[in-house]
TrEMBL record:
This is dolichyl-phosphooligosaccharide-protein glycotransferase. Belongs to the STT3 family. NCBIfam families: archaeo_STT3. The chain crosses the membrane at residues 21-39, 119-137, 149-168, 174-195, 238-257, 264-284, 296-316, 328-348, 392-416, 423-439, 445-463, 497-520. Keywords: Glycosyltransferase, Magnesium, Manganese, Membrane, Metal-binding, Transferase, Transmembrane, Transmembrane helix. It comes from Methanosarcina barkeri MS. Residues 47-465 form the Oligosaccharyl transferase STT3 N-terminal domain.
């Protein structure tokens, strides 16, 4: 036996030849981690606290703490959001479990709160850096080591959403989705390569040829494990089953036309799907029926269905070859079998059929109505309905995106030249993710993987053209130490240097430059929202819920049984998680898009009660009716507090009517002399949001401001200028509290007598916690008997124990005036809360 044939020598040679690449990937991984930790100063604050980025990150930390408090049990249903219904949590359990296990290990079973926060903050950065590894291997098996290393470099520095969602502090499951879906594709690819190289046949399974089966089986099992990990981070992971199934259908057809066996493909698909079915089954909640967003029978059916698809495709192929049928009939039989399968599903389970049919539009279709206002759910190719590539280029760089398209075209052209399975798999995978970002730009963090691989593939082809492999071999044979490097440089050719320069200038430099721009911290939540939620936590009554308790979900058709002390906090859905996680109070609406209300399909639908309906209500009475309708219990209001910020009143107000499908008339075009400008109209100023934030709740009978934060420079001044100029208003043209908290109260009833039909006014001056004052006033007409009545929301006597500890209140008594008469009236807090009558 020669040394070349000796297994030990072969293994040693393999180690010697691969260690430089392993070292390169390790260095690239550490660079990737360094980039992702650049904004650490914005996350780990000087006071020792940790500030997470975006609302979902805060919510993940909430579910993590509940998990650690009740380990190993996890919260599945949360009654402390979407009050008074609660919300099922559609986040997968794995991301939280990984952070929990890490925290428990580092904390020796008892991690401190700061340690948990630290683990949570660094976790996305670590997962983002680890993604370098599967990307390298996919690139390697697509175009060799050079392609793998280049792909690793590109994903390590990839800008856009992949970077921002894996920065320190962005504690969300998105980066885990990217890592595990890429690992799934890597192991699935390795299983295909191994099974095909070993010429695996189903007979090998029956004959127990373990030398043939061992490696493909191991890779297939790992593929199933990684797919399950991916889906247990995000229930919508069925997208990747669709990708491999579509790939498999076309790969079977190609193999059949070439008269090649596809048993390698069937074996890989069946084992992968069987493993994923077994692993996902324990997490299914039968009461969910068929749901795409919660772990339900849909996820089991899709895995089993995909496995059955692989088995059926293999069976059809074997029968086809046994009967020596014409290859052109094979696609027709597959099409017929697919149609028959859909017919059977429609008859057996119409709900499952409806979900399967609608799922592609959910992922790949452009959102309409309210969902179109969700930032991450909009198409990456459109901005306000106008086609644009600006968001594409900012996520992937211009050359990166164009390289990915060119790479797909080259892989597609290879279909006519007997492509390898891994080439076709990458093509189908990339095409489907491209469709996904057309529907929703949030999938840009997936497509960054494809852009890196395809760009590297293109770079690898360029290096092949200049005979880089020959240079590589010469270096390996001649360079034994660092001293040999200068002598080996004589092998380098001009065209090889130019090729490397082209790759650096057009592929590596753009992503590096963009990465430095994107590697910055987030200001969400901003200081006013943090301060407002902390105030809410400290100065409002305890709702009577145990914050870290795991509550059982109510049975179908029943409401969760809240204590009598429970209440909701109304705000726009963007801020729901902040209200819950920082304020420890129960928001009516949340970033799961629950509690928004409004309409979904047609203006002819009933306008359901919720945040959109409340804030667009054209009068106080209609807004109050919405609060009453939110809670079906006749003696309960759906909300006690309302939180508004300057963005709700200006920048994002348009999203509110969008959810009601009634958007006309809130803004009007105004000619400025050089162009038309959109300005708020009467309908806007009559909305409840404008009454609360722009007018400070002046004149409202049952809503009082109880706190405001520091003022920020916003568009509020411009809106007030419009109101003063066009509608004769006299609003001070200044920015006021960025976040304002209002309380709904029954209101004290001030009654008295004046001359019949006489105009009666009531007013007082409100002093806020920021030292700002504004006028509160109402006007009414005495009836024919001379009686008048005002319902007022403010107490002049200050807060009482056990109720709202407001710091915004009248600076003196109410003044009632009519004719030459003025009267001062004091109002107690009890009268405001209980709706008592006070005679002037």
């Amino acid at each position: 036996m020669s040394s070349q044939d000796h297994p030990v020598s072969s293994f040693q040679n393999k180690i010697k030849s691969s260690w430089p690449y392993a070292l390169a990937v390790a260095i690239i991984g550490f660079i990737s981690l360094w980039v992702r930790t650049l904004p650490s100063a914005t996350v780990f604050l000087s006071d020792g606290s940790v500030k997470f980025a975006t609302n979902d990150a805060w919510y993940h930390m909430r579910t993590l703490r509940v998990l650690l408090e009740n380990y190993p049990h996890r919260m599945f249903f949360n009654p402390m959001t979407n009050y008074p219904n609660g919300s099922y949590i559609h986040f997968g359990p794995l991301f939280d479990q990984m952070m929990a296990i890490t925290s428990l290990i580092l904390g020796m079973g008892h991690p401190s709160s700061h340690l948990v926060d630290t683990v949570g903050a660094y976790f996305p950065a670590v997962l983002g850096a680890l993604t370098v590894i599967p990307v390298y291997y996919i690139g390697k098996y697509l175009g060799g080591h050079k392609t793998g290393v280049l792909a690793a470099i590109l994903i390590a520095l990839a800008p856009g959403q992949f970077l921002t969602r894996s920065l320190v502090g962005f504690t969300d499951h998105h980066v885990a989705e990217s890592l595990f879906s890429t690992l799934f594709m890597m192991f699935f690819m390795l299983a295909l390569i191994s099974a095909k190289e070993k010429n695996l046949r189903f007979e090998d399974v029956f004959n127990k040829k373990f030398t043939v089966l061992k490696e493909p089986f191991l890779y297939s099992v790992l593929a199933g494990v990684m797919y399950s990990a991916y889906q247990l981070c995000w229930p919508g992971g069925s997208l990747f089953l669709l990708i491999v199934l579509v790939y498999a259908i076309f790969q079977y057809i190609l193999d059949n036309f070439r008269n090649e066996s596809s048993d390698y493909l069937g074996f890989t698909g069946i084992v992968t799907c069987l493993v994923s079915t077994i692993l996902i089954l324990p997490f299914v909640h039968p009461d969910m029926g068929f749901s795409l967003y919660y772990y339900s029978w849909f996820h089991v059916i899709t895995s089993l269905g995909t496995m059955a698809g692989f088995a059926a495709l293999s069976l059809i192929e074997r029968e086809f070859k046994r009967k020596q049928m014409t290859a052109y009939y094979y696609p027709l039989i597959i099409l017929g079998a697919g149609i028959l399968g859909f017919i059977v599903i429609k008859i057996a389970s119409p709900s499952l059929y409806s979900l399967i049919i609608s799922a592609p539009n959910t992922v790949f279709g452009i959102q309409q109505g309210g969902p179109s206002t969700i930032g991450e759910a909009t198409s990456i190719f459109y901005n306000d309905g106008v086609f644009t590539l600006s968001k594409v280029f900012s996520n992937f760089t211009t050359t990166g995106f164009l390289a990915s398209i060119l790479g797909m075209l080259i892989l597609a052209a290879n279909l006519f030249r007997r492509p390898k399975p891994q080439e076709f798999l990458v093509l189908v995978w990339s095409f489907f993710i491209l469709l996904a970002i057309y529907g929703q730009n949030r999938f840009a963090y997936y497509y960054s993987i494809n852009v890196s691989i395809l760009s590297a593939y293109l770079g690898g082809l360029l290096l092949e053209k200049v005979k880089w492999s020959e240079l590589d071999q010469k270096f390996k044979s001649d360079v034994k130490s660092l001293a040999d490097v200068p002598k080996a440089l004589k092998f380098v050719k001009v065209q090889q240097v130019l090729a490397v320069l082209l790759i650096v200038v057009f592929l590596i430099y753009p992503v590096c430059a963009y990465a430095m721009l994107y590697a910055v911290g987030s200001d969400e939540p901003n200081e006013p929202w943090t301060e407002a939620c902390n105030w809410l936590h400290s100065n409002t009554p305890d709702p009577g819920m145990n914050y870290n308790t795991i509550y059982e979900a109510p049975t179908n058709g029943e409401m969760f049984q809240y204590p009598d002390t429970a209440y909701g906090v109304m705000s726009w859905w963007d801020y729901g998680h902040y209200i819950e996680t920082i304020g420890h109070r129960m928001p009516n609406a949340n970033p799961f898009q629950a509690g928004i209300g409004g309409r979904r399909v047609s203006i002819n639908e009933t306008n359901q009660p919720g945040a959109a309906t409340f804030f667009t209500a054209p009068s106080e009475e209609e807004a109050t009716a919405v609060l009453k309708a939110i809670d079906p219990r006749p003696d309960k209001m759906g909300s006690r507090y309302i939180m508004s910020d300057a963005r709700m009143a200006t920048e994002i107000f348009g999203a509110m009517p969008a959810w009601t499908l009634d958007t006309d008339g809130y803004y009007q075009a105004y000619w400025t002399g050089s162009k038309y400008q959109s300005i708020p109209s009467t309908r806007y100023f009559n909305s409840m949001e404008a009454k609360l934030h722009i007018f400070d709740g002046n004149g409202l009978k049952q809503y009082r401001m109880v706190h405001e934060t520091e003022a920020y420079q916003t568009d509020e001044v411009g809106y007030k200028q419009v109101y003063n100029y066009f509608y004769g208003g006299k609003l001070p043209e200044v920015d006021t509290g960025y976040v304002k908290i209002f309380e709904y109260v029954k209101g004290a009833n001030i009654t008295g007598t004046a001359s019949p039909n006489e105009t009666v006014n009531i007013n007082t001056t409100i002093l806020t916690d920021q030292g700002r004052t504004f006028g509160y006033s109402q006007s009414t007409t005495a009836d024919s008997q001379g009686r008048y009545e005002f319902t007022v929301p403010y107490s002049t006597d200050g807060p009482i124990t056990g109720e709202t500890q407001f710091d915004t209140a009248p600076s003196g008594p109410y003044v009632v005036s009519y004719g030459d008469t003025t009267k001062e009236v004091k109002v107690s807090e009890e009268a405001v809360l209980n709706g008592e009558e006070i005679k002037a």
